[in-house]
Amino acid sequence: MAIFRTGRTIGSDRTPEHATLGDDGHWRLTWLPERPLTCDQAVAGLRLDEIISDPALVDDRMAIAEATSCADRIGIILEQAVIRLWKSTLGIVALCAVVLTRTGLKPAV
After folding, report:
1. How far is CA 92 from the centre of its chain?
2. Which of 30, 31, 34, 106 is the most buried (most CB within 10 A)?
3. pTM over the 0.85 mark
4. Alpha-helix runs per DSSP H in 22-77
5. CA nearest 43: which of 77, 88, 76, 10?
6. How far apart are the C-alpha atoms of 95 and 42, rounded to whole Å?
7. pLDDT, one tens digit for every residue, the chain (109 residues)
8. Which three-class secondary structure state does DSSP give residue 108?
């Protein structure tokens, strides 16, 4: 898992979520846009997303402990993060369905 930073964006090679630097100097996660964050908090939010998004870590106690710590660093509890990320994923899937429908493409099975 790799988190990378370019000028005004922090992203991950494991998830479509990212953080952007606003004109106010605060970072905002795509899945938690109403909460202004520091750079370290934005990185913690992306690391949290990477952990939650990895099915191989579902039973890994150390990974869950790290995810809980990351959630705490951005001021939410782990369960809130799971729900917010799930809702974000649903939005992405719905958008893909709209695009496929409008372009006449059929999803790969």
Report:
1. 12
2. 31
3. no
4. 39-53, 61-73
5. 10
6. 24
7. 689 999 999 999 998 899 999 999 999 999 999 999 999 999 999 999 999 999 999 999 999 999 999 999 999 999 999 999 888 776 666 666 777 777 877 766 5
8. coil
Structure tokens at 68: 């809980």
Alpha carbon distance 105, 78 (integer Å): 37
> Residue 23: which of 43, 41, 8, 38 has the closest Cα?
8
Which residues, in sequence order, are bridge partners of residue 20?
A: 9, 28
Instruction: Return the sign of the alpha-carbon dihedral for residues 16, 36, 83, 50.
Output: positive
Query: What are the residue ranges of helices labelled H in 1-109?
Result: 39-53, 61-73, 78-103
